[in-house]
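quick one, 609 residues, struct below
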Amino acid sequence: MSTPTLVALTLALLVVAAFAWYWDALDWWRLATEDRFYYGVPWGTALTTAVVVTFYLFAQGGLSSWSDPLTFPFVSWSYFYPFGILTSGIAHGSPSHIVGNMTATVVFAAVAEYAWGHYPPARRDDGSMLTGGTRLRDRPVVRALVVPPAAMFAVAVLTALFSFGPALGFSGAVFGLVGFVLVTRPRAGVVAVVVTAALGTLLDAFTAPVVRGTISSGAPGPPSWASIAFQAHMLGFLLGVAAGASLLAARGRRPSPLAVLGATLLVGLVQSLWLIAFPAQSDVWVLYRGAGVSLVALLAVVVTVAASGREDIPYLSVTPSRWLLSAGWLLLVTGLYGLLLLLLTVVGDASAISFAAITVAILPLVVPGIYPLADRRWATTSLSTRGTAIGAVLVGALLVASPALLYGPITVDDASVTDTGEVTVEDYTLTYGENLSSGQQFALLGDIETNQTVAGVAVVSEQRSMWTLGARESTLSYQGNATVTVGGLGWRETVEANRTGWSVAGNDSVYAVDLVVEDDRTRSFRADPRRADGRIDGHNVTVAATTDGFEVRLSRNDETVATAAVPEVNGTASLGPLTAVTDRSDGSTTLAVESGDTRLVVAERETYN
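---
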């Protein structure tokens, strides 16, 4: 951290603040907000961000380990782990994760709270300025400190509950705010994106005022977009749009259609609402950018109608019987959708393309659920184009959420990681493996065979219905070590994974992975022995990992002649008629076998970044 730079930055911002104060910025803020905010403060936004940040600092241990928060116990692993569903919406995985979500929350939630208002729209006299009316829901304190936080946390829980896979973070609620703002204050929504980016840059300037970089490459890993919960983002966005459009309809307001259309397109593209990605196979992900952008374009039209549709052109006649008929049809379509997804998984073709094809094919079937309402012979009341569009948004939200009903109930059997050199920390079991298969089972679908295996440190907890990788094999092969933090409310434990190995001449590496818990070291994994290219005095040489180190084996005609532990650096060891030698020079360590003046280089010790 550069103190002179921080001092200069602080002074510059103070100068800007003083200039704004001199030019009556305080009066401007008061005039702009006094009829909407209680004492001119977005209290709901402040309370919500305070709760999320407090959870990160204390429940996740961010106060003592800012860069290594505890995450595993707060993830929505399964419907059978309700604690994770309740907490995953407010927990975050890293400093950048929480900073990004909170900057967006501060900006978008303040705009949304302004659109909602701390005072009921019908207030007219000075007395109602303070009391807001006789009803509890009209009181400013309730409208400021109860309704906005409750709405945001409700969307956070819903997006976690219906997330397609484990969820973590407040981004579902953030996208709910984005959807709400785009229909209620579309121009402010575009400005909010710019302000959010500016706040992020400002925070980066304070936390990292000077950055030095070198030409280097990082550890192999999945693309950054592969871990984004696009389905939860879309669900949150649709819920926000429905809430905002309903509020506008109740208040009889119609924003400019062009403003809503343009704002939805711009913000949707900038905020990656178009991001649709699926894993195709092990270590391969597919991003459907073109399809995603097309979806955003079509969605912008529906959002515009939901926000600005005409109220005075009824064309859908409604009766209770017709509503029941339409609701029954839509439920039937949703059930069919789920059965088709189930069929895909059973036949083993649950690919992203098949999933997208089924979704597109099922959408036309939604129309008959709305069309029967158009029979004017049953007319008692009517829906407007706006109401129809809001209904379409809610149907879209239902379709987005429905896969989670099949894949959400998950159970875990830790038998897949027992007797594998595992370590146990409370209810967690950790092990390392090269061809690990998930021990998860879908309660409604059974054990789905994906024929995909993973490599790395597996972290399993039956109690939490959890099976995940705490560290990937590619990370360990690049760095040589990684830490995995497990725990629960009030406790945490760090497990360190260390890799050591030898690159065998003309063959693959022989390596071992140790798991360390409170200085207690367990050898969790040993790769298969590897034979080096070449022979010396008619002997073959093999390097193998042992329970606590490595050894070199001498064989002739596939029969072992002698074995010896790999000697310390610059040391030797007797290997039957030959001698094993370890040398270190020019930054590398080599293992060789010697016979008189003949020398065979067998392996080179792995080095890590």
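The first strand starts at residue 277 and ends at 281.
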